[in-house]
Amino acid sequence: MDRRLYGTLVAAPVVAVGLYAYYLKYRTKNRLFFMLNVPIERAVAPGRWRLVGLLVRVRNFIYRNTIQDRLWNYIEARSEVGNADSVLAAFDDYCYNYEWTWAIGDKKAVILAKVVQEAKPKMMLELGTFLGYSAIIIAQNMPPDGKLITVEAFPKSAEIARKIINRAGYGDKVTVINAFSYDVIPNLHHDYDVETLDMVFLDHFMEGYVADLKRLEKGGFLHNGSVAFADNVRGEGSKGFSEYIRSSGHYECQFYEADNGYTEGMSDGMERGIFKGADMFSGETLGL
Q: What does the buried/exposed string (b/e) look like for 264-288 if buried means 16 or more CB atoms within 10 Å of the residue's CB?
C-alpha cells in the first residue's frame, strides 16, 4: 500500500476523534472530553506512540496550552505546598482519569523507591526528568543529606518540573538542568562539583542509555558499588542496555518486571546494575 495512503488511513480516525473532542469541549465543560481520550490513549499506547503524540497535539491545539501546563494547573489546584504525597496523588489522579503521560507512575515508583532506599545515594544523577514525578520519588527515599541532579532536554518540561518539585518541597534537594545528557555528563565535575555518583537513573532517550552509561564509566563518575538503574528496558530503543550491562562483566544485574506507567497489562521492565568495574576505567577520559 502507498505510504501516503496508509498514513491517511491511520491518521483519519485520530483527527476525527480530535475534532469530536473539540465539539465536546464546549458541550460538556471539558470532563467528557478527557473521559473520551483516556481510554483511546490506553488502547493505542502499546507500540503506537506516534498516535498518542498526535492525540496530545490535538489537545494542545484545542486548549492553546500544553500537557505540561494542564498537569501543573491540576496539581496546583489539588495539592498542598510542601506535601509531596499530595502532589504525587494529584499527578496520579490526572494521569489515570484525564490524560495519560510518560511519567513512570505509581507502580514503577514502588520499584524505584526500593532501589533508591537500598542504594542510599548521597549524590545521584537522573537522566530524563520529564515533569518531576520520579525526582520526587527519589528525593523522598534518598538520605536526608542526599542531592539529586536531574537532566531534562525539553525546556517546557524542565520549567514545569521545577514548579512541581518545588511544590513537593524538594527544591533545595533537587537541581533541574535543562540540557542534553551528552552535554552535561562531561561537565559534571567542573560545573556541578560532582566527583562520583552513587546512583544514576536512566529514563530519557532510550537510544542513549548505553552511550551515556559509557560516558559515565569512562569519565570516572562511577565507583565500585554505584548503581545504574534504567526504565523501559523492554522498549525497542533500549534493548541494548540490558545486553550491555549483563555482558560487560562490570555489573551485578537484576531485572524488575513492571507494567508501563498508568496502563494495565502493558508489560515493561526496569533493570539495576551494581557497578564493579571502577579499576578497569581508572585513568580513562571521556572518549564519546
A: eeeebbbbbbbbbebeebeeeebee
What distances in angstroms separate CA 17 from CA 9, 11, 52, 71, 158, one per listed residue? 14, 10, 12, 21, 30
Do residues 230 and 238 make contact, with C-beta atoms less than 8 angstroms apart? Answer: yes
**Tens digits of residue pLDDT in 135-193:** 999 999 999 999 999 999 999 999 999 999 999 999 999 999 999 999 999 999 999 99
In the block, which residue shows the cell 491511520?
10
The model's pLDDT over 177-213, given as tens digits with 9 standing for 90+, comes to 999 999 999 999 999 999 999 999 999 988 899 999 9
Q: Extract the C-alpha cell encoding 62.
A: 484545542
Burial-class residue 5 by CB neighbours within 10 Å (0-12, 13-18, 19+): exposed
d(Cα 227, Cα 258) in Å, to the nearest integer? Answer: 19
- Say what the pTM is: 0.80
